[in-house]
Write a structure and sequence with these properties.
Layout: H1 9-12, H2 15-34, H3 41-58, H4 65-82, H5 98-132
């Protein structure tokens, strides 16, 4: 029934990919929870929470390409917009320095873009592997 006698896509998908995707979902859920004491928590909780939900959903459904591409582009544009001109002590203490906060938020958006790039790659891998499952008609 299946080419190369492989099991259906949902079953044969790599276990390590599924574990990594759920790990990403957990990490972004923690990121969202840590934003509670941020000056603008709702924005960042929505961004990180939405990324976490996208990771969970991609474990069960294929991510629509346009959604993934839009998320990557928006995240990178937002990261560039947030990036401060001065980047001294980005990994140091904040000490009321808005440059450090903006740089960290910008790097968070780059991480979000990276997660969506991974989800897009995973989605494309599903499409390619599902093509293998299509059986050519036999000519008798």
């Amino acid at each position: 029934m299946f080419a190369n006698k492989q099991t259906p896509l949902a079953i044969r998908e790599s276990l390590s990919q599924s574990i990594f995707t759920f790990f990403l979902a957990l990490i972004f859920a923690v990121f969202a929870a840590l934003q509670w004491n941020d000056p603008d928590p709702l924005v960042w909780m929505a961004i990180y929470g939405g990324t976490s939900l996208a990771c969970v959903a991609s474990a069960f459904f294929r991510l629509p390409g346009i959604l993934g591409v839009a998320a990557v582009v928006l995240a990178l544009v937002f990261a560039a917009w947030l990036w401060p001109g001065e980047t001294k002590n980005v990994f140091g203490e904040m000490e009321g320095n808005p440059v450090v906060e903006e740089a960290r938020e910008s790097m968070g958006m780059v991480i979000v873009a990276g997660a969506f790039i991974y989800l897009l790659w995973r989605s494309l891998a599903r499409v390619r592997s599902s093509v293998v499952l299509i059986r050519k008609p036999e000519i008798s």
